[in-house]
Amino acid sequence: MHDAFAIVLWVVCGVGILGALAALIFSGRTWEDYGKDRLLMDTDRPSASKPAASASTLERDTEIRQLLEARNLRRARRGEQPIDVEQELRRLTGPQIDPELRDEIRDLVVARNHRRLRAGKPPLDVEAEIERQIAALNDL
What we know:
3 domains; mainly alpha
């Protein structure tokens, strides 16, 4: 009985090794493709995150606009003045800049101006640059 077990064990191991070698030989193309586009993470894809972000932003804005229009209908039924939907949408989706964040942005712009002056470049208009930075935050 022990002799039969040893024979079966060696035969199964041999067949397994032959199957593994055959799989390795026939999977050469797979190893050549390993690490190419389809195996990248979503964050590593060059254009995967940009359209999704803009599509989700568009969907979010559409839903908020619908909610604001529904609010206007309720206000009209109560006899109140309707609000401007687009202005309220900009207020809700715009960056929330508190005074501390504005001061931090100002400090960064002032530091950038010092570096520009040391490099011999003209300084930036601090207030205009702060507003540009805040507008850039809205694009994120």
